[in-house]
Amino acid sequence: MHTNPKISAVKSFSPGAVALVVAGLLIAFNHSLIVIDSYVVVGLWVILLATILIMVVQIAHTEKIFSKQFVQLAVQKERLANEIKYRIWAEKTSSENKARLQIVDENFPIMLAYFNSEQQCCYHNRAFRQWFGLRPEQIENRFFKEFLDRPLFSGISNDIARVLSGETVQNQHVQQLANQASCVVTSHLAPHFDAAGKIIGFYVLYTPRLMKKGEEIKDQAKTEHSLPQEDKNKQDSGKNAAQEPPRASMDSSRRIIQAIEQDKFQLYCQSIIPASLNQDIPTYYEVLIRMAEEESNLIPPGAFLPFIEKYGLMSRLDGWVVKKAVHYLANNLFDDQVSFCINLARSTLEDPSFADHVRALLNAVAVESRRICFEIETPDAIAHLQTTAQFTKKLQQSGCLISLCSFNHDRISFDLLKHIRSDFLKIDGGLICNILRDEEDLKKVENISKFARALKIKTIGELVETQDIQEKLIRIGVDYVQGFKVGRPFPIEKIGQKDNRLL
């Protein structure tokens, strides 16, 4: 039952009013000539003391409520200040990224667009609309078939159906330009998956290149599409050529297994160097992977790894990478200062035979096991704690090193070290990027570094993009750094060559 606010206000002042009345009566009786019984005087004093006591309790209660509200207000103020700070940082970062994207959008001769699952255009760059000779309003929020003529749309409708089924499609076709020149257009269509693995859209990337005189496109599906404004004869030739079957870069598990067995993947690496160059500690190289296609084209991992995961072949691919990296160490006369860091997928952590395979491989080629460090994502280790703990223990019994990647400043990450004995902590790059402009993220990195140092665990700062960030990490005490400031990825065969960190 709710009390009327007016009544509550009157109740809060009533003890004071009673005390004033009683005090007034006592003073009046004391100065009057009227004789008052003693029990009346005693009763008035009791009432006065009782009301004073009630007032003291009310004051204490009010003070308690005020203190509580003051603390809540301080928390709200701090939260608001942080939100304002993060919003300013986000707006600044968004503005910087927008400026960079605008440079790409306005200057790069690559046609890029994104369509949702309904084939409605959600983004396109200037090169894309200029290629089709259309204005922005003729493409934005419109469906593919609305701004492409019938022959062009029929030529790519099969590719769209395939990309919406989860495939990554790559094609080449020859296009006749208005000036009678011929242009080779390489098209890439890649699906966009949400967190649940559902396809919510797809990316379209066209890369044009003028054909040299006498050049022919070999082993490719030749088609001749025409621009929307060209004549009907060219459109007919494009329609006939479009009926030839296009080539998909990745369409089945058989294709993936064949790529692994035929060594169609290539190893790249990125340097992980001591933060302070005067430290005499080993240099590590994170092993990366690219897929080789025809004509020496390389496909980045984002284009083929989702399909390898889809077909449950990540453990097999990880085994291939380990085998190649170990044999590369065995066949090249590197000193002990060169070691490899190899990423492991979540599904590999659940493969009980993988650790035994690694041990047998190291014994067979006589490579020191400490020169192989396996990188495990912290979220993957948390999601499969018991399995990962057993998996890493078997690898460490073989002498291999373990690195926990994307390590963050939260209790669950720190608690993970109670179950897994890690040799390295690769600090989350999201924290590293902000240490120069966010005191909170800087403090988190400092705490991770101190915590790791106390446990005698080496730390790695990833996504080091500037000299200032590297110098800050040196002052913090981070042991290793990795990023474009240190060096871009390069073919593994170039390890040891002069200035390979700058490639």
Tell me about this structure.
- By secondary structure, the chain is of the alpha/beta class.
- It is 47% helix and 20% strand.
- It is built from 16 helices and 17 strands.
- The strands form two sheets. It has an eight-stranded mixed barrel with strand order 8-9-11-12-13-14-15-16. Strands 1, 2, 3, 4, 5, 6 and 7 form a seven-stranded mixed beta sheet that branches.
- A hairpin with an 8-residue loop joins strand 8 and strand 9 (283-292).
- Helix 1 (5-31) runs antiparallel to helix 2.
- It starts with a helix and ends in a 12-residue tail after the last strand.
- 26% of the residues are buried.
- The model is unreliable at 219-252 (pLDDT under 50).
Q: What is the CA-atom radius of gyration, in angstroms?
A: 35 Å
Largest sheet features: 8 strands, mixed, barrel
- Total number of beta strands: 17
In the predicted model, the low-confidence regions spanning at least 5 consecutive residues are 219-252
* Oligomeric description of these chains: single chain
Alpha-beta content class: alpha/beta
Q: Quick one: overall form?
A: elongated
Report strand order across the widest sheet.
8-9-11-12-13-14-15-16
Relative strand content: 15-25%
Q: Report, as a whole number of angstroms, the end-to-end distance.
A: 75 Å
In DSSP terms (H or I, runs of 4 or more residues), the helix count works out at: 16
Query: Helicity range of the residues?
Result: 40-55%
Please tell me the overall pLDDT. Answer: 79
